[in-house]
Amino acid sequence: MRLLPTAPFGPVRVKADPYLVRTGTYVKVDRVDEEQFTKALDGILGSTDPEFGKLISAVLRNRLDGLLGTVTAGTHRRDYSLVTVDGENIIRLDSMLWLYNFDGAGLTADVRNAFAYGAALSSVRIDEIDHGLLRLMVSHMVNEIPGLTPEERKEKAKELHARLVRDKDGRVEKRRRLAALTRAVNDRLHSPVGISVGRDGFLHLASPDTGLIWRTAPGYEVTTVAGGGTDYRDGIPALEAKLERPFAVAPDRTTRGFVIADFGGARGEPGHGGRVLRVSADGIIRTIADGTRLPGADRDHPIKPTHVAVDRGGTVHVVALRVGTDPAELRILRIPPSGPVSVIGQGDLETRCSPTLRRSVFGVAAHEPGQALFSFSACGTVDRLPDGGTRLTTVAGGGDLTGDLVPALEARLRYPCALDIDDDGSLYIADGLYGPRPEDFRVRKVTADGRITTVVRGRDAYGIAVDGPRKILYTLEFRDDCTAYCLKAYVLPG
Question: Contact, 271 vs 299, CB < 8 A?
Answer without folding.
Answer: no
